[in-house]
Every structure is written in structure tokens, then in C-alpha cells.
Amino acid sequence: MRLCGRGRLKAALIDLKTERNRRIPNPDQVIIAGAGIAGLTLALALANRGFQVQIFEKSATLAEIGAGLQLSPNATRLLDRLGVLERLKYSSVEPQAICLQDGTSGEKLLHLPIGKAAKERWSAPYIVCHRADLQNALLTEARSRPNIAIQLQSAVTHHKADRQSVMIRVQYHDRIEEHRAALLVGADGVWSDMRTAMFDTDRARYTGTIAWRSSVAVEQLPESFKTLLPAGTNVVAWTGTNAHLIAYPIRSGQMINFVAVAPERQNGRRWDIQINPEGVSQNFIREFAGWHQGIRDVMRVGRPWTPWRLLEMKKCRFQLGDRLLLIGDAAHAMTPYAAQGAAMAIEDACALACALGTDSTTWSSALAAFSSARTQRITAVVRRGALNQLAYHAKGPLALARNILLRNRPVEKFVKGFDWLYGFDAEERKPDT
Ligand SMILES: Cc1cc2nc3c(=O)[nH]c(=O)nc-3n(C[C@H](O)[C@H](O)[C@H](O)COP(=O)(O)OP(=O)(O)OC[C@H]3O[C@@H](n4cnc5c(N)ncnc54)[C@H](O)[C@@H]3O)c2cc1C
């Protein structure tokens, strides 16, 4: 099409405006790499504070990857404020208790009330759900906000920050797009490209342990396994030498989600490799060979088992510069022994939005304060995870001592020991750990 004089002038003005926009970003413009739990939560929390948010997600669809998640009150209070908890109402389950049992004898060791007790003590519910249900709830809420744009099939491949802004390159189909923003947040998960681009040797490390994940329809549970279950709807953990098994209901209570954690040398980096019960590693079978019959039976009826290597990052990294940040697994992938990975991603997101939304401080000091407070909190949570691992996988006299302690210590003392974790409000920015 040929343009006349006025048309050419108009086109030139548009070009100039576009160029200017590319160079001088709106100070409220934030770009997020990754539409996982951390990225979507951050988008919502920022949108609530008037920011313009653009999310780039490398996957073509936000598929049903992952399995069950436990979301403790420190996470659900934040999801509630974002309008997401309401969206999870029908797919999530609110268990009545967390129960610990011996994996060999089936003996009941501890019954920790949550349900109504969690809401009374920590002012928010303890829920369990499928990761996909949480991601869908976040996504639906994000799509309802005019100031959030989500572009799929778009991998953030390169970034360069100066004092004013950050330039971001995005691979969209077969072309490279260039964008500018006031801030780039890497919420790109455990394999974070943004982290490794800056700290090549600082990748997540394999812990030598695999979480085997599966789910079984309630009506398919073997009778021998049902005899092990305490009455009611619960999160149940069975402890054993070097291994443990966790079970809880998901998908409105129609399925039971299983996570069996055991040592293993090999495996890939995907969440979606499925292995039939007969095809699981011999190591896995060996680890649970001496366990209670009910547990061995349920492991055979499971739908395909998905192996997931447990990774952790030795160093927690939030701030990469004044214009670059990491949150969620990209900042601090942790083992699941405290069941806090997604909860920490949610806390990071809300705390960051809070820091950026504060008028009284400068951007740079707000980010430094955010980074320091979150590092303190994550360190405490990682420490709790290590303690849980020790307790779950204890053997010999240590296992004996653990069982005596769990049986005899007043439940109130265990409950009190969770106050710092579940009672925490990330938006108040008080790391009382
Ligand atoms: C066995 C197991 C059990 C667990 N159980 C629990 C539990 O009970 N409770 C709990 O709270 N947590 C649990 N977790 C942890 C939890 O699943 C994670 O911590 C959480 O999903 C992290 O969220 P995230 O947003 O940081 O990363 P993710 O949810 O992994 O999202 C990262 C996103 O970034 C995208 N991406 C990657 N690279 C790019 C790029 N270059 N450009 C654009 N997009 C990109 C990815 O496609 C992905 O969508 C468990 C983990 C495991 C392994």
C-alpha cells in the first residue's frame, strides 16, 4: 500500500512513538518470565497495585503437569486476597489432620489437627489440590485483569539491564521480539535460564532422591491400604528407612495423590514421563519391599508413576540487579520435605509486589529489603525441610527415638512449632522466623 503525505507523516509519528516506548518504558511496566505459580501470583499481586504486567511463557499451553500440592495457611491467606482461593473451592480439599504413621507396622504416631483448627489458629485454611487446578485458578483470575497480558510460546532468551530499564529478547515462534520494561522478574522455575545466564555454575543440584508421584481413584484403593487410613480426610505420611510416602485427596476428593520419596541415581528433567507400576525402578521397589502390605498393594494399583528428581539450590538468589529479580524455584528451588515450594513461590510474589508498591522508599532500597527478608525466611524453611527429612527417613535407634517423641509429646507443642511457618503474613514483611 502506498501512503500519501499525511499518511506518511502519521506513520512516522507512530514509528517515533513506538521507538520512544521501546527506549523509555513506563515505570509501572513489569515483565515476568514464566507463567507458573510464582509468575501468575506476582502478576495478580502487581496488577492489584496498578502495575502493567506482561508475562512471557515458553510453553504453548499451560498443561496438566505436576501433581498434588499442599497449601498451608501462609499461602492460602495470600491466595484469598487475590481472589484465587474462591476459585479453588470446588477442586481443592480441606483435610482435617496431618497424620504420621510408621511405614512398616502402620502404627499411628501423630495426629495433628488442621481443618477448623488451622483456620482458628492461623486465620486461613490448609488445603490440598492438584498443581494444575491452582495454575488454572491463577490463570483465570489473571485473564480477567485488563492490566495483565499473557503471551504463550514465548521464551525469554536474553536480557540486558541499564540503570533505567531492561531490554528483553523473546523467542516467539520463529521470530525474535524485543521489549523494554522497568523490571524483569524471572519466575522461570527450577531450570531458570535467567539464573544460569548470570551464574552458569549455580544450577539446581540433584539431591540423589526421587519423588515418585501417582494418583489412585478412591474406589480403586485396595482394602489392605484402607485399613491403614485414619478416619476422615487427612494428609497421611508414612515414615521409613531412607524413604517416605505421603497420601492426600485431590480433585474434589475423588483421587488420592501419592508421593513416594526414595533414593535413586538416574532420571531425566521432565515432570511428564509416566511409568507403569510394573516399570518403576528396581531401587524404588526395593526401598519399599519391607513396608506394610497395604502400602505395597497401593503402589501396584497406582496409575502410571511419574519420577521427579528432587533438586535444590545451595544459594538463594533474589536480586540480580536493580532491574532484574528472581522469585520462586528460580531463586531457591528446595526439597519438598516441608511441603513449602509452591507456598514460598506465592509468598515471594506477594512480598515483592508489596515492596514495589510502597511509595515511601526508593525502588532500589525496596528491592534490597525484599531480598534480605525473603532470604532469611527461605533459609528457615529450608532448615525445617532438612529436619523433616531427618525425621521421616530415620533408621535404627533414631527411628525408635522419633516414634517415642511423636507418640508422647503433647500435640499442642507440635502445633505451636508451626506458628512461625503457617502464621506468617508475607505482605506484612515481618520475617519473624
Ligand atoms: C515431589 C514434589 C512435591 C511437591 N510438593 C509440594 C507441596 O506439597 N507444596 C508446595 O507448596 N510445593 C510443593 N512442591 C514444589 C512446587 O511444585 C514448586 O516449588 C512450585 O511449582 C514452583 O513454582 P514456580 O512458579 O517457581 O515454578 P514453575 O511452577 O515450575 O513455573 C516456571 C514456569 O516458567 C516457564 N519458563 C521456563 N523458562 C522460561 C523462559 N525462558 N521463558 C519463559 N518461560 C519460561 C515454565 O514453562 C513454567 O511454566 C513440590 C515439588 C515436588 C518436586
Automatic annotation (TrEMBL):
Keywords: FAD, Flavoprotein, Membrane, Monooxygenase, Oxidoreductase, Transmembrane, Transmembrane helix. Pfam families: FAD_binding_3. The keyword Transport does not apply. The keyword Transmembrane applies. Coiled coil: none annotated. Its cofactor is FAD. GO terms for molecular function: FAD binding; monooxygenase activity. Residues 29-384 form the FAD-binding domain. The chain crosses the membrane at residues 30-47. This is FAD-binding domain-containing protein. It comes from Phyllobacterium zundukense. The lineage of its organism: Bacteria, Pseudomonadati, Pseudomonadota, Alphaproteobacteria, Hyphomicrobiales.
